[in-house]
Amino acid sequence: MFFQLIVSGIAVGSVYTLVALGMTILYRSTTVVNFCHGEFFMVGAFAVVVSQQMFGWSVAPSIVFALSLMFVVGAGIERGLMRPLQNAPHISLTMMTVALSYLLKGVSRFFYGREVIALPPLISGDPIAVGDVSVFPQDLLIIGVSLIVVVVFYYFFQRTRIGKVIQAASQTPRGASLVGINVPLLRNLMWGVGAVMGAVAGILIAPNTLVYPDMGGHMLILAFAAMTLGGFGSLPGAVVGGVTLGILENIVGGYVSSSLVEITPYLVIIAVLIIRPQGIMGEWRQDRA
Amino acid sequence: MTPAGPSAHRVRKQRRYGLIALLVLLCLLPLVLNDYVQFVINTMLVYCLVAVGFNVVIGYLGQLAFANAAFFGVGAYATGLSMVHFGLPYPVAMLIGTCAGGIVGGAVGLPALRVKGYYLAIITLAVGELMRWFYVHLDNITYGSGGFNVPNIHVFGTTLTDRGKYYVFLAAVVLGITSTSLLLRSRFGRAFAAIRTNELAAASLGIAVNRTKVIAFAWSGLIVGLAGALYAALNGRVSPDTFGLSQMLMQFAIVVIGGLGSLAGSVIGAVVLTAAPELLRDFPGFEEIVFSLLLIGVLFFMPKGIGGLLARKFPLFRERLYREPTDA
Amino acid sequence: MKKFRLPALAPMFATAALALSVVATVSAFAADPGVTKDTIKIGMFGPLTGQTAIGSLPLLGAEAIYKNVNDHGGINGRKIELVVEDDACDPNKTIAAVKKLIAQDQVFMIHGGWCSSTVLAIKPELARTGLPFMDLAGASAAISTPVQPNIFQPVATSNTVAKVMVNFALTKPNTKRIAIISHSDEWGKSHLVPIIADLKAAGLEPVETAYLERGAADATSQVLRIREAKPDFVLAILYPPELTIYLRDAYKYGIKVPTVTTQGVSIEDMVKRVGIAAATKDLFVFYPLNSTLGSASMKKWTNLYTKYNPKAPVETLSFMGMTGALAIVDSLKRAGRDLTREKFIAALNKLNDFNPGIQSSPLNFTPEQHAGIQTGKVIYMPGNHPEILSRYPGK
Hints:
Distance between the termini of chain C: 98 Å
Helix content of chain A: over 70%
CATH class of chain A: Mainly Alpha
Number of helices of chain C: 13
Strand order of the largest sheet of chain C: 7-6-8-9-10-11-12
CATH topology of chain A: ABC transporter involved in vitamin B12 uptake, BtuC
Shape of chain C: elongated
Largest interface: A-B, 40 and 41 residues
Strand content of chain A: under 5%
Radius of gyration of chain A: 19 Å
Structural class of chain C: alpha/beta
CATH class of the largest domain in chain C: Alpha Beta
Number of domains of chain C: 2
Oligomer: heterotrimer
Distance between the termini of chain A: 52 Å
Structural class of chain A: mainly alpha
Low-confidence stretches of chain A: none
Mean pLDDT of chain A: 85
């Protein structure tokens, strides 16, 4: 049972990682904690469903459509709703993301409130058993995609020039713009990217959880817990935190009590913030300059 | 900076008469209301207190602490459970609920000393959800996820009706708001504002920052705990599902729409956001959308909330400590 | 000095006095509220929006019955006027909605409630005002126990569902080890507690009780614990989304024993969602209706439902409120033209062997027993068509 719990924990933790990565990117580029990230997750899944049902497209074009849509949505939100408020106190920005979360939920409930929609797995097939441990092909896909995303991000941010430019822009926006970097444009792009990441996570897990307007709510807390555990604002922290949280949930549920699974993220948050607030990898701070 | 307008003396006099007139009107109000509208008004009163209490921490002290729903729940549960388990009369239970809120408030204030910014927001959210888990799983004491019914409240031998509750609530709200207003006008209130603006500078002025913060949290917990006690009587039942994340976000919205750091704003925000779902009854499904559009509109056009807008136009609404909150 | 004294306050007093006099004149009404010369006003509430909006289907079914009655001349010369409120499965919102229906809309009776928590929350208000209340489809046994004279429950209670589930599991030969997976909310508890009691009466204890929360994405740890306990049968007390996750994970981790679950889940829907035939061929669902949705005897009701709700999905839930509505219509007729609340409640209490053919057993109300349905059947889908049974399919 132990290894099964670990493997499944990695699979579910990969989804947390993707969501936490998306939120971290948004946090780094605008220092705003995005309370509507769970809804990006949900809208991404719905976009795939809608394009399949309404336009009758098959899986691949639906996914492309959904991801492009989410990029536009994310960038649009930054341009239209966040940028005008950038000089307002942080509380206003936070509140704006909360308002957006209600808006997205309300709109999707308006159209699809009465139903819970099933999405067929991207890779169907029987469970694969390796010794004592079984995985669905879909689980392997989730882990695979997350791994690819993490590697791509690492390479992009640490090794390419553009990545370093973006890092500079998020660490010291004023200094970066003094050097001629187009900080607003980068912010805009990062919001698009963050939204896409949320959507990717939603599309990957939708076959398991089914698609419904409230699917993003619990994911938000799990992402918070993952980010806090790994180190708020740290990209490697989001990865470590996400996977660890997934494994932790399974271990607690399997060996302690299944009724503790739902509060594991809260316990993690409280424990981390009391014992070691900077999380496993250490937090990321933005300089004032 | 008060722009040129009526003198401070005159404004104070206007305000005093205005408040008295308002109070008289409020006392006469129940005579023209049916049970349903009375119930809605009672709900508004409860949320006025909730918003005022929340504003002390988030608007005046300037700390992003999302423990309000937890204080609310503690007040309601303490009140209800003392009536159900120990048969205590409502006034005593109300006192217990209020004190429980104050104690939990102070307790939350302690970790708030170490943790700042978004961390504080997240940990207080987590504490709120953890408390809800306790309400569900300690079902020997708390009656679990279904909650429990609060026994009817008896006053002078008769059961308290919605109209009777209104007067009790009105008295509690007036007491709560007045005492909060006095607190904010005292040196404590000034200390809150000083801490909000710049903690270091406040400390250098001799303000005991840590103690003041805990006092602010405890007071917030007290007021919101009282609101919780009223809530237990309002619905006649207490259950865990009421005190979760969505309630917390709604309370946040009330305070932002009403205006951070504005008592009048808190009241207005509570009235508006309690009335809205009732007015939207004929349009099910639109509530969330209207709510979010309202929030977005306020954030764009009235960042200081409705209270801030009124304060700009009418000196009547300007409160001494009213100032825009700095970055959280 | 500004004049905030008498001249300013006078208009306020005048308005108050005027309003008072208006209220005084309006407060005299002759007959029972909600009844006029040609209408009977019935208030309804259900989760039109929110997380459990699927629970609005019973309301649509009941509405169809009422609209159909109106189209065929009404009841004793009166048409039914409906006032529908949304409760979003929120008990506090329901209290406000019911107060509005009673105090402002002044309805004759109320027919409503899918989420049991909403119905339980308004019990005190119903007791205080005494108006007749028919539960729409809320299953908690606490609704009709202890009996309140004006509250009626026309669907199988969670006690009944629990009994049917346990008995069904025990009809499989050599079933000794039973595992349970449940939500920890009130709905889950209302089934879990009677299940454990029924098992105890049969001399058994669950070998494992696992909790899965609403909104969970994964049931691995719960399923593995159950697997370790080597059950012969699993009792699942889960809502459809979480049941789907459980069934998938159970299949993945090789739990090969049958599962029986509560009402409110549609077998066709479940098979479609899980998408793995092998995972659902051993799934048994408590079935509150008389025959399968596609059968000839349901056709009349399906047509009625789609006539008035052309765009709504047709599921098991759609029919769960209809028998209650038909019982109301029947009792209103029998109460006669001179309609009062007492006569209506008396007529309801005389409902004996009432069986329009929708639910799996007849409806019976007496002054002491307001839980009208005491039995139920089970449905499963081994192949392409659902089948109803009451015992585990033997060899």
